[in-house]
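A quick aside before the break. I want you to see a complete sequence-to-structure record at least once, exactly as it would be stored in a machine-readable document. Don't worry about memorizing anything.
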Amino acid sequence: MALALPAVAAGAAGLGLLAAGWMYASSSPTSQIFGRTLVAGDDPHEVALTFDDGPNDVATPRLLELLARHKVRATFFSIGNFARLQPALVREIVAAGHLLCNHTMTHPRLSTALARRVRQELGDCSALLEDIAGVPMRYFRPPFGSRRPVVLRLARELGLTPVMWNVTGFDWEPIGAGGILRNLERGLARNRRRRKASNLLLHDGGHSAMGMPRLDTVRAVEQFLAAHPPGATRYVTVDAWSVAFGNA
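That is the input. The structure line, written in tokens, reads:
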């Protein structure tokens, strides 16, 4: 029995490493282990403002007004169930020139969902958004960044490119506009040192309910745009990087 203990310990350690590797591959925003995802381009002067979990009847209109004042286009990953409640707001996003994208119907964790549910979440969201806005869906972001190989395969079958991020605002935490802005600035500086563009993860809504408080995000974006005005910084939507990804 004593001789077997090292083998048991080694087996347990191996399983632990395997589990840790799976968690990293399924949730790390820049991991490519489970398959290619679009993260960002190679121009450190380019920034994509991306907003998840809307539309939100409180925050999204104010965000659209702010972006219009600065003449900046952004990328919105919208939840189907909220889009159904706010179709006029979805159309306003598209009319303003922003990129509308798929964020599933109900915001499930796709890394643990059955394959048939993954297909339904993605397919139903694309169909709904296309019906409301009259534009094709070409990009999606997995809720929580959570994915596995079958998720990426089904997305490709539905004509969707998976999009992640390389800067996190952590705006779902109670850190105020100042805290959100500090997170954005740290991420931007890190990517510029690495000579990479920056894909900023922010939220104009919250997946648990319509009307989630996101005005601190709007304030942080306002301060970010003031510190990095268009011109010196090139604001793009994520489709600007699709050619490098291989989706011209």
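Two observations worth writing down. Residues 12-19 have pLDDT under 50 and may be disordered. The two ends are 61 Å apart (CA to CA). We'll return to this after the break.
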